Every structure is written in C-alpha cells, then in structure tokens.
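okkk here we go again. third time trying to get the magnesium ion bound version out, last two times i messed up the smiles copy paste (missing a bracket lol). double checked this time i swear
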Amino acid sequence: MNRFKIFRNLVVPVISFSALIGLWELIILWGHVQGYLAPTPLAAWEAISSNWSTLWPLTSWTIKETVWGFGAGAVIGILFGVLMSKLRFLQRSLYPVLVVTQAVPIVAIASPLVLLMGFNLGPKVVIVAWIVFFPVTVNVLDGLNHVDHDLITLARVLGARPWRTFFLIEVPATITPLFSGLKIGATYAVTGAVIGEMAASSGQSLALYQHTQIGQLNSAGVYGTTILMTAIGMSWFLLMITLEHLCTPWLRRSVARRWSRGARTLDNTYVVKGAK
Amino acid sequence: MRVPNSELLTLVDVTKRFGTTQALSPTSLSIERGSFVSIVGPSGCGKSTLFNILSGLLLPDGGEVAVGGKSVVGSTGHAGYMLQKDLLVPWRTVLGNITLGAALTGRVTEEDRRQATSFATRYGLGDFLRHYPGSLSGGMRQRVALMRTLALNTELLLLDEPFGALDAQTRFEMQQWLLSVWRDSQRTVLFITHDVDEAVFLSDRVLVMSPRPGRIVDDVEVAITRPRTLATLTETDFTTIKARILRQLHRDAESLS
Ligand SMILES: Nc1ncnc2c1ncn2[C@@H]1O[C@H](COP(=O)(O)OP(=O)(O)OP(=O)(O)O)[C@@H](O)[C@H]1O
Ligand SMILES: [Mg+2]
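finally!!
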C-alpha cells in the first residue's frame, strides 16, 4: 500500500471520528447542558474505565452473544443462499418465507423465544442469527445468480466437474457480495444482541446495566454503555473488512503473495532454474 | 488420396438452427492431423456455432462429429477450445489460469505446474507467473488464454478469433508466436478469423463460409513454404490466394443486397 492509500484509508477516518467526539464535547460545554441530561465524552469514558471490572463481564457476555449469533446467522445465510441458487423450486418456495421472517418485529420474537429457550444464551443467539442471516442469504443468492456466465461456459469447455466449477469459479465470484451481506449483518448483530438482552435478561447484561443507570440518572453510565455496544459492532465490522481484504487479494494486488500455495513451490524450484 | 487415419476431425452433415435462424446448414468437413486450418466468413455466419458444436458445448440438430474416429457429439474435453473472449479468471494468477483445466478436472500436479512454467518461460511470460490477470496487457492475456488451452494437451485446438482485439504490431508477434507453438507441439489447429491476410499467412488451408445459413463455400489450399516472413505477404502466390478468398467473401456480400 502506498502512502496516499494509508492516508486515505486510515488517517481520514480517524480525523472524522475525532472531529465527531470534539463536536460532542463542544456542544455539551458551550450549550451548558446539564450533566444528568448528557455527559461529555470524557465523562462517558470515565464511566467506562472506573467501572471496568463490572462492565467487562457484561461486555464479554454481549460479545459472546454477538459472535455465536453472527456465526450461526452467517452459516445459515450462506446455506440458504447456495441451496436456493442451486434449486430453483427452493428459491421460489423459500424466498417469500424468508422475507416474512424479516417482517416480523424482532421485539415480538423475543418473548416467545424466552418461553421456548429460557433466559440463557439461547434466545439472544437466535435473535442475532435471525437478523444476520437475511442480508447474507440475499447477497449470496444474488452473487451466485450473477456469476459471469462466460466463466461457467469456460469451465465446461475445460471439462470441469460440476462441484469443481462451484468451488473454483462460483464461490470466488461470490466473495464480494458475500461480504456485503456479512458487513450489513455485522452492524446489525449487536442491535440484535441488545434487543435480546432487553427482552430476555437473566439478571446481568449490558442492556440491563444501562437500564439501571437510567434509573439513577447517571447519564455518563448510560452513554458509556452505548459506547461499549457501539464498539462491539464496529470491531465486528472492521473484522469483516479485514477478512474481506485477505480473501480478495486480486482486487488490490497485481502480484500474488509469496506464501500462496502454488507460488511457493515455484519459487523454490522452477523460477530459480529458469531465470536467465 | 488421403490416408484415412491421417484425419483427426471429421464432420458429416452437421446442422444447427436457433429457433427460426438456420445458423449452420449441413456441413461436412475433414481435417488432417497436424494441419493448420483457418475459417473465414462474415460476422454471424456460424463460425462460433461450428466451434461450439465441435467442442461439445452445443448439441447439433443433426449430423456426426468424430475426433480420431470416435464420435464426440455432446461430450467435452476432446478439444482445447479458446473462446472468442480471453476469459481469464481474475482471482487466479497467470500460473493458476494456465493450470485451470487441471484444477477443474482433477488435481494440479507438480507436472502441470512444471509444464505451465515452461510454457510461460518459453513464450515470454516467465516473470509474470504470480501476477493476477488484472495487471496484464491485452496481448499477455491472450497468450495466457492460449497457454491454458495448450496445457489441456489435446491434439485438436479450436481458436476463435484469438487475436481479434489486438493492434497490428502485437498481432503480428502473436501470429509468429502461435506458429512456433504449433510447430513445437505438433497440434492440429482450427483457427477462426475475420482477417484474410492472417488466415492465409498462418494456414495450410483456408475454409470460406457464406452468410446465413452458414456453410462452407470454398476450401483453399495454401501451398506456400514455411517459415513464412513479412516478405511472404507481398508474394504473388500469397496475393493470388488472398484475391480468391476475398472474391468469395465479396460475392456473398453482394448477393445479400
Ligand atoms: N445461443 C444462441 N441462441 C440464438 N441464436 C444464436 C445463438 N448463438 C448464435 N446464434 C445465432 O446464430 C448465428 C451464428 O452465430 P455465430 O456466433 O456462430 O456467428 P459467428 O460467425 O461466430 O459471428 P462473429 O464473427 O461475429 O463471431 C447468428 O445469427 C447468431 O445470432
Ligand atoms: Mg464468433
């Protein structure tokens, strides 16, 4: 990556993010906003760091819900997408049903889930998965349905077996849409987890903690909790972007990395021998 | 008289229609082992359709196609077919693209990689093995697509306008290169082009097709010694053959109006 790209991709977001926090601080200070209405960023930060020993177990619990729910949602989403693209009748029959699942208000799913699964991890994971799978399915299905038809023909010309065509042509062609779905899912995952916590909390959770802070008119605690939730979502999103970059080197590089499989054997043997 | 087993490819009364379009009227043809045969004809006359049938991508409505005496109607894998577009797979390196055939049918062995590497090295892409296609020039992409076709190790090669999109300079280099590949590897080449000069320059034989319904209207022997050079293009033998082919094409164009 050259200097300009580093600047554009890293420095610019950091600047705009800092500007946002600065603006927040200024509004509170110049607007003489009372502390119980809204805290300064610094106060919110202190509410997190001074209560870290209480907050960390809650946060890690939310992370757990997000990770499991996201994982399940992604797997189910990919499965649905692939199956529907391969079996037309499934696409016609299942797709409308999947759309209906998304029309059901998520809060209204939470209570039935609690009845079914109790107050543990279960309902939260289901809710997160419920939200995450849909954009993944839609994008994977779209991606698979729009693989360059000439490449499929090429594979046939080369005498390909069907499942080879799938893994060597269709899957790589669908990586970008897949990650579009995963990125949307990543931003919604925490929302799902928090909704689950609100509706089905067993004593301790970030959502419940925030609720008690409201009761105590501790605005710094309320905002601090929101920041923590946001941070989980953002980290997850950044993780997806990183994964996407790692999975699609050909979009940014002109030469494959040395450690890619075929290239390594080459370096050791033929290229060295064949060099002029 | 041709010895029967010197024929690699035989077509008998092969026809194809798309809806109401007769793309190919009954076509019979035989191609000798080791020869270089070009097919010229106006756009839409059924050249690609013919190749699609020969490669097994498309089922003919009637007729018989045999390679090495065996019927190959509707089966793929007996011919190396380079489609009209270069169609490199963007996520595979040059090496990965050359060995794509092996990857799709079985396993890419060390031997496949060795062969791909030696092709690339011999034909000027040795330093680009780890490059992705996105960073290659048009000529390089065509060469990779051609090497991928060669790497299938089929005796029969079907090349559909492989140099159509190239500038004159690159095109001439590529023609030289293809001839050297053909000489080195003892393949049988069927070559589609719009360019009569190119057809005559490269071939032992040129087939001229008429506009729809497509059929072969002339079969021209090119008895010019090899290797051919730039000077060949202005020899009388060359220009006589070229004039004959152009007249055929032109007559068909006139009969259209
Ligand atoms: N899959 C198809 N469905 C319907 N019609 C087709 C199909 N493929 C080809 N045709 C028609 O058959 C005719 C011959 O097409 P073909 O692609 O073989 O022409 P061509 O000689 O290769 O032309 P060009 O030189 O432009 O590549 C054309 O009229 C075309 O419209
Ligand atoms: Mg064509």
